[in-house]
Structure formats: C-alpha cells, structure tokens
C-alpha cells in the first residue's frame, strides 16, 4: 500500500448488481464481512447497493470514500460487458486500466485447470487499475484488487460468497492487519453476541431486558423480530475503551441476558432451532418422526437441513387430506368428525400415530389453518395445534393463534412444534 | 410541496436499522418500492442501508439527495430511543422538530382503537420536522412525513412492509404524481419483465439470448443465478423514448425470450415453480403425492406454499431411513441392496410406491446425497435421482449431479423434481 496514514476504523460495503438493487434477495455477504472486519475493530457502518452502471458505481465509491476508511465492493468483476467495477474504480480514482501480467497468468492457470482457455470477455478480468495490488482468487477465475485512495482502502472482490470469503480471509485481512500495525492503530475487536428467542412478542423481550446495558457502557443492544422469533444482539462499539477487552464487557451482560430470557432463549450465535433440537436428540440417543398437516413438510425440511440428521430423524409424513391422516397415522374417523382436523385431539392422535407406526422414541405433529381460506369464526386462519408423544404415557399439545400470511403461519407453526420438542427434551434432562 | 422544480427521475431507498446492516435478512421492501416508482418512470438506482445512528443517517440522506430526486427512507420511526430518523432528517435539512397536531391526533386515535393511550416514547412519534407534510399511517401507529430539500423529495416511512406499502400507495404515489404533473415531466413508466429458467447454466442462458437486445434500444437485459435457476430480466430504461410505449418495446423481445429459452423457461413474473405445477395439476384435475428422501420435506413444503394446494396435493412421506422406504413405500429390500438407496431404481420404486399407496394420479420422488458426508467415489455428494410415476405404465427418472452445500443441493433437488413434473404435465397436454 503506498500511503500509511491512519485508517478511519469505519467500513462501507458496496454490493454491485442491478438485480441486487431490485430483488428481494438476501445479501449473504454482509454478515461475513461485518464479522471479519469486526475482528480488527473496524465497524461496518454503511452498506450500499448499486446497479451495473459505471457512473453510478463511481459515484457510490466517491461517497463511500468520504465516510469510510475501508470500502469493500463485491460483484461486477465477471467476464460479461455488464461487469464494470474495474472501469468504475479506474475512472473515479483517476487511474489507468491496464492488463496486468500477474492477474493474467493466474487467470490462464485457473482456466487451464478447468481445461479451458480465456475468452475475450475473460481476458478483461485481468484489467487492473494502475498502482492497485492484485488479489488472487483461490477458488474462481476473477481476480480482485485493492488500492488506497483519499485515505481509504478500496477493495474489489467477486460477488460469489465462496470466492469473496476466501479472498477476504487470505488476502484482505492480512493487508488490513499490517496496515493497522504500520499506523500503530490499536485494534480493539468489535464483538457481537446474538441470542434467539421464540414465543415472546418484541415488546416483552424489550421489557425483560430493560436497564440491562448501563448508560455510557460502549455496548449496543439490538432487536430484530421475524416469524422465527425475536433476535437480541449485544455489540461492543468501535473504539470501546482499550483498558477492557470486549469479551470482559459482554460476558456479564450475556449471563444476564440468559437469565432474563430464560426458557424463551433457544439458541445463541448462528445456531438454529433445528440444530439445537438435533443436538439434544443426539445427546439422549432418541429418534424422531414427524406428522405434518399445515406445515406441509417444513418441519422435516428444517430437521434435515442439519448434517447428520439421519442419525435421529427417521421419517415424516405430510398428511394434507383426512384420508392420509387416517391411513398413514391411524387417526380415528370419529375424532376427525367430532373435533375436526384442526384440534388438540387430532394433534395428539397424529403425534401418537406417527410414533407408534414408525417405532421411534418421539412423535411430533402440527395441524392448523394456514389460510388464506379455510378459516371460520371458531377456527380462524392462524389457529394451530402442535403435539408431542414421548411414549411415556399421554401426549402434550399446545394451541397457538398466529397472525400473518400463509408463509408466515407455516414458519411460525414449524418453529412452535420444534420449540415444544426442545422444551420437552430439556425438561426431561432436569428430571 | 413548497417548490416545483423538475424532479430528477432517479430514486434512492435508504433502509434504516443496525440489524439490517449486519444481518443476512432479505430486504423485502426494495422490490415493491422499485415497482411503484417505476410506474411513474422513476428508477431506483441506489440503495443504502445504515444503522440507528443519527449522524450516520444524516450523512446518508445528504449523499442521497445529491444523486437522487426521490429519497425513500424506511424504518427508524418507532417509539424507542433507537429510532432517530426524525431527528436525523431535521438535523440534516436544518428544520426544527416539533410535535404536530395532525400527527398527534392520528396517533391517539389509532392507539385508542387498540384500547391504549400513548406512552412517552409513542408521543415522540408525533414529532415532525417543520414544513414537512405528515403522511398518515392507515395500518399502524407511526406517522411518516415528506419534505422537499435541495430539489429532492425526502420521504420517511415505517419499515414494516404492510405499513410502508399502504402509505406508499395511498400517500406518496399521489404526491409524486401531482409533483410530476406540476413540473410537466413526462412520466414514461419503467417496465420490467422477468423470466425464470431451470436446468441451464448462466453461460448457456446468456448464449441463447445473445444479440437479443439491439444496440441503442433503451432496454437492459439482466441475469441472476440462484440454486433455483437463472432469472432473466428485461427492463426499459428511465427516459425511454416517449414516442414508443415501454410495453411495445418489450413485447417483441419477450416473445423472442420465450422462443429462445423454450422448455427451460418455467415461469414469468412473480410466479414460482410450485404455482405453475399447481396450476397444471388443477387444469387437468390430477392429484399428487410425493416421496422424499434427500429433500427431507422441502418438496411438500413448497407445494403447500400455494393457497388451495389441498385440492391436488394429497400427501407426502419423508423416508429418511431405509426402513421407512420399505414400510411407507414398499420399496423392495432387494432393490435397496442391489442398487443402493440413491439410484434410479429406488427413485422409480419410491414414485411408484407413493402413487399406489395413496391412490393419487401421480407419484413424485427424490433420493440423493445432500452431504456433506455420505458421498463415495461412485456416488458423490450431489448425486440425485428424481422419479415420476404417472400411472400410464413405466416411471421416468432423471439423474443430476449438483454442486453446492447441503442446503443448495436440497433446493436444487426439489426444483429438479418439480421441473420433471412440470415437463411431464406439459408433454401430456401436447399429446
């Protein structure tokens, strides 16, 4: 890097791509970049998305460099004419764009590995702004690059998560680290701890955590509500007093969060409900089968997202019709007629039926009205029953009245069923 | 609106919230805003995300106003101290923040409806920058507002999609329309048409559409690859020649896209594979049952995302264990032993088994190795077979070798199974 002035410890990420601008596509790169940069005490404070238009990208880089010391761009490095990140960076920084031997050699080598020679479009990928450092791509073909401009480090990486992640860890982090060392900038890592709750509205979670973080403590308390529950986060602020290590600051707060959220807290960090349930089942060497109606297969899908779930998940049935409930689970016609398919009795019979027929230790069930049609005055859309039979005499069921559209009600129902299982497994441990 | 200078037909959206900055949460508001603004010929060219920090929000608004004529902020209007959009707008535009009677009355009325009186935090929601127009919230409690600053229209809306959407349609669109009328700005709508393909790599889709859009035609051709396939979009540029209506421009292009993508094109617009399949099943009054192994319930989950799917979807079984495959589907032990659970023969037996046992017209199946473990040299992770039995003698199966992690392989497998069904239903029509 040519200059070694102090780097403002503020980062901006720029995702490049017209489809990203419009689409409801989730940006998977943000969390990764925030976590990596946080390790060096660099806080992602701004995120921009811009289409594949050279002048718009140039404008966005210009604004980003004014407010952030580290600007990480993802995307727009591909071989098609759409891809114009290289040109935009050269334009805004006033550099010349030229074919670079190190980039070209790496590109040829990578394509040769795949038994191909570079097309004209692919040769464009070796065009790099003058004075920039080439960042080799250990996974794909597009090289990245970085350069210093106006006291900001401008980094350009591919948009493909696997490639971006490898280049960030292997190339960008060492450059940032040595740059911070050169300028003697103390890097107090930003630490973030995340807690996942289910079953409490956001206002109640907020109330339970009232007064948790003392005034002037450099920690942010955040909330994010979704159909899967309310997420709580504790994040140390950039530049938290160096005399105290961030972990020391968060440790007692995290303990308090756990105490206050108690049974509503189902996971921490990146763990999901299905992973937690899977771990509890594995620990107790218990097997599971599920009987789904309104969730349509979502509970099975979620359980099998976990690698190795075949060790405890035996089977599932999706019994959408009453016929399927009777044939696959032996739910008595009399129950269906007397209470209806959406009832505590049928949820119990489904859990019992799947457990007995599959020979697993536990049967789990869900039945409800996902909508938008099918609701009545007494059984409205969103009415859901989940059931569990643990084979120890008697099944448990739980009733919910969810709001939201069909997709949200299905998600909440699957979460409710898995949470019932989680609570049952934990109760069993304490017996 | 105080001024009536011409409005640059460029928009920027700003999503406010620290969790949005970090999280991998999909931004559901973008597509809606782009479509609404596009109707008036206003193009969303920039998207920003910023945390709940007053000075950062102010900085972002400042940059946005420089490059966009319409700036739409979502979020940060809630009752907690985190919510500081109001303060940021007042600060950056140099307005005073004061309690506004119209906002306060509406807030009290809304809360009274819910049997509540405003808390101190909620009263803050009636604080509006001086000179701004209050935008009533027909769904929730937080009012929005808009004001003109530096030749940009700055709009602040709640982040909750339902509230944002209602206010956008009922309040913001009429204001924008009359503003464009006042300044005699021709509003050529931006039209976007989306095509969904499955089964072809992005490079092949690109090749098939080569030369589609003539040079200088004001239409953008876009691509977006995902595990569900490659999306193709045609979008008219803002300021497309007024002499031709955007639809006229796209119509012949869309016809060409359909011709060139032929059988690989499975849906257009917002339609999903499961909706297309559902419509075909409904049209032919056919019923379906599915037998899933590696997809773990995902096919059933997707089919039941469609309202009214109970009319054609009877049941599903998730047979993760070999025992389940034999008991629930009657897959012969000999087949499992000879070919293994991941084989064309077992996929066929599963499709046949579920169709016969459920008495539906069609049986659909998927079996494969989702990984990360369980792969061998001859049967690697990503090897997937899908099968279909339509009851007309003989089942069809198809083999795939997918790349990606467990989640991606499951998604691709479910898409492959549903696409097999789609193609079969369409073939049947042409017979």
Structure description:
The structure is a homodimer of 431-residue chains. Chain A has 431 residues and is an alpha/beta fold. The first copy, chain A, has three domains: 10-182, MoaB/Mog-like domain (Molybdenum Cofactor Biosythetic Enzyme, Chain A); 192-268, 2-Layer Sandwich (Alpha-Beta Plaits); 273-430, Alpha-Beta Complex (Maf protein), CATH 3.90.950. The termini of chain A are far apart. The first copy, chain A, has helices spanning 18-22, 29-39, 54-67, 85-93, 101-113, 120-123, 161-182, 202-208, 246-261, 273-283, 298-303, 322-329, 333-339, 344-358, 406-430; strands spanning 10-16, 43-50, 70-74, 97-99, 127-129, 133-135, 144-149, 152-157, 192-197, 219-226, 229-236, 265-268, 288-292, 313-319, 362-368, 383-389, 396-401. Chain A has a six-stranded mixed β-sheet with strand order 2-1-3-8-7-6, with helices on both faces. Chain A has a five-stranded mixed β-sheet with strand order 14-13-15-16-17, sandwiched between helices. Strand 2 of chain A pairs antiparallel with strand 2 (43-50) of chain B.
Uncertain spans of chain A: none
In percent, how much strand structure appears in the residues of chain A?
Answer: 15-25%
Mean pLDDT across residues of chain A = 91
Domains counted in the coordinates of chain A: how many? 3
Kindly report the CATH topology of the largest domain in chain A.
Molybdenum Cofactor Biosythetic Enzyme, Chain A
CATH top level label of the largest domain in chain A:
Alpha Beta
Overall structural class of chain A, as computed from helix and strand content, comes to alpha/beta
Strand order of the largest sheet of chain A: 2-1-3-8-7-6
What is the CATH architecture assignment of the largest domain in chain A?
Answer: 3-Layer(aba) Sandwich
How far apart the termini of chain A lie comes to 62 Å
Q: What is the number of strand segments of chain A?
A: 17
